[in-house]
Specification:
The protein is an all-alpha fold and 97 residues long. It has four helices and no strands. Helices cover 87% and strands 0% of the residues. This is Hpt domain-containing protein.
Length: 97
């Protein structure tokens, strides 16, 4: 489990960077794809807050509600950072009990 969590965090941080770049460039196709992928992997590890905002952004992109997608995507890096820190703390505690 610890290795899975570490891999998830590394990959997800890369995705957050891609999402931030897509937001700045208003690349809604990339924004939709990356938030879909991030939302799925976040949910798999129980990262509900990150999954929820990712799904909201994805849905806004699908519905061509681009201003709303940009608003939400601006919030994503902070939510992601907090959730990754919480996972790293939990991972450091171990999973034996």
């Amino acid at each position: 489990m610890p290795e899975l969590i570490q891999f998830y965090i590394i990959e997800s941080k890369e995705r957050v960077g891609i999402i931030s770049k897509a937001e700045k460039e208003k690349d809604f196709q990339t924004l939709e794809f990356e938030t879909h992928t991030l939302g799925s992997s976040a949910l798999t590890l129980g990262n509900i807050a990150l999954s929820a905002i990712s799904r909201e952004i994805e849905l806004h992109c699908m519905q061509q509600q681009f201003d709303e997608a940009l608003e939400k995507s601006a919030l994503l890096p902070d939510i992601a950072s907090k959730s990754f820190s919480a996972l790293e703390t939990r991972n450091a505690q171990g999973f034996t009990k």
